[in-house]
């Protein structure tokens, strides 16, 4: 067992449990928001059946996807599936979702039940983290209903910190993509001056 005598955001067991981002399919019924249809699998047949259901699917790594090569390191981003057939998943599970058209993306950082929503407007319709992408950030407001569902979700998962990713679709619906209990946040504080670190140490 691992022991740590100092104060921390999560127990180590919780942090290890969230090394893979939690997908909508993981969540209990009482906390579900609107979600895209999703699949995490390392079965080629299952993945191809999911892909064939519609023309617009995306794929992303189920954890931090990195490729190391002689020139350095690259990060695997979310991509639209262009091939009609995938194979080789037995070596590494992948995370598939329906593609949702969006007005913008929303990163909601939560610590100690304090919510910090940030609107992310991107030139890339698939992944705002893509290389050489133009991005703008602004502080946003989340509806009371969504705030309540976010806090309920965190309570059910027994976590005090999380970074939630949403899409705001063309009809202004909140579409929940995933949450990460070890999610990045400092760059948003630097961009917008929001006091996440101050809340973190309270």
Brief description of this entry?
This protein is an alpha+beta fold and 202 residues long. It is 20% helix and 32% strand.
Question: Could you characterize the architecture of this molecule?
Answer:
With 202 residues, this protein is an alpha+beta fold. Helix content is 20%, strand content 32%. The protein is built from 5 helices and 11 strands. The chain has helices spanning 12-17, 44-51, 144-157, 186-192, 196-201; strands at residues 38-41, 57-61, 66-69, 72-75, 79-80, 94-98, 102-111, 114-122, 135-139, 161-169, 174-180. Strands 9-8-7-10-11 form a 5-stranded antiparallel β-sheet. A 4-stranded antiparallel β-sheet has the order 1-6-2-5, covered by helices on one side. A hairpin with a 4-residue loop joins β10 and β11. It is globular and about 50 Å long. Residues 25-30 have low confidence and may be disordered.
Topology:
Layout: H1 12-17, E1 38-41, H2 44-51, E2 57-61, E3 66-69, E4 72-75, E5 79-80, E6 94-98, E7 102-111, E8 114-122, E9 135-139, H3 144-157, E10 161-169, E11 174-180, H4 186-192, H5 196-201
Antiparallel strand pairs: 1-6, 2-5, 2-6, 3-4, 7-8, 7-10, 8-9, 10-11
Which features characterize this protein?
about 200 residues; single chain; 11 strands; 5-stranded antiparallel β-sheet; 4-stranded antiparallel β-sheet; globular; alpha+beta
The helicity comes to: 10-25%
What gyration radius follows from the Cα positions, in whole Å? 18 Å
DSSP helix count? 5
Low-confidence stretches: 25-30
Mean pLDDT: 79
Q: Order of strands across the widest beta sheet? A: 9-8-7-10-11
